[in-house]
């Protein structure tokens, strides 16, 4: 089959004069923001310049077509997109690492696990890369990539198979101290370009659709956004940070033409808070072509308020492995947070076979313990079924690990996960609580009898511990916390920032046996702990 970039580059040619990206320019004071438009033609030229540079440089290093090339990027610059797509256009497979990879050992391990031949790195990582065991080359600025086009013609894109790797990203959480590589196949990447049509709702013949960047350019969502947008002639605008504030939101609309806002649920909740008090923010939201939120459901009262104010809101469900799967419809706002399968996506809901304790669910209410819950299954023949190395139901396909309830025929509501993962941090990334708990119980076995990690949809995680010997004073509690932090430090250093117990104040010491357990197995009930200690957690997050 054709390389996934074939369709993207053909789309670039259809819209040469339209803007595909609006790059943020900050003043010296960093308060005044302006955006510079980059056309489809300019972007394609930039990609091809990077491709020619890397084809020459890496071929000289013995890197062959379809080899894996590591890219360690900050994810903060338009140039990062050019490096990712330039490596792809040169015929290689980019394996992308972000600034969140603070451990060079983890980068080295993951690169070797994917048989990476070389690591290209942003200058800001220069001090770290000496420990990488493969050849490593610094990434020059795009305007410093002086290539003679006549002497360095680009080779044609390689022919590929459906399940060949096109790009490699990683899970947003770690398992046993290491993220998991997620190869995106060519079939998968081409499928997302088509599925994006099911996300864009509402027809506006006048003017382009302009979306905001969603997070780092070194993460899957923003890194591949221009692939989706290019097919439909749309545009992306850069933000100063992932969780941009309300002032920047208004500037994005006024100065950059933002008309379809794409947010994680907690960020939308923050905008709603301002909109309830500020008619300008409310009117701006009402004039959006579409407001898409993802990552989790928001407060039901906020959902009801959005419906009452007639905001053009849709809820999207996607994962790193399966990407776009479910979405609500603007015309069905009264049914929020219920979603339907995107029309071009082939997936199905299958009843769970395991016993589900309703009190353990992390989202919403299910009515009773007898409520039927479903898993989302992606069959192997589906375009968005992940790479065979990722599938957890081989050879049939893959389940996402999330639970859903069918509230009306064909409409499903997210009801949490069926495992030990939660979403936490500023960008609502995954966190494997069990790995963290297991490490605490292992290295602190003489100090901690039992523990649990909480923090679903919160700025950071909090560790609750039942000690072996109950402290009798504040000084004893402080000493216990300090010992836990010291003993777990080697493991924490391998984790993403959002997965770390970052301060002694994020450890709560409780009496032995006091954490709520399930009746049958005696497992600590994570959600119940969050509910019972809500005031304690509120005080901790107040200073987050």
From TrEMBL:
Domain (AMP-dependent synthetase/ligase) ranges: 14-335
Pfam families referenced in this protein's UniProt entry, alphabetically: AMP-binding (PF00501), AMP-binding_C_3 (PF23562)
Listed GO biological process terms: fatty acid metabolic process
One GO MF term: medium-chain fatty acid-CoA ligase activity
Family of the protein in this entry: Belongs to the ATP-dependent AMP-binding enzyme family.
PANTHER family: ACYL-COA SYNTHETASE (PTHR43201), ACYL-COA SYNTHETASE FAMILY MEMBER 3 (PTHR43201:SF8)
Name assigned to this protein: Acetyl-CoA synthetase-like protein
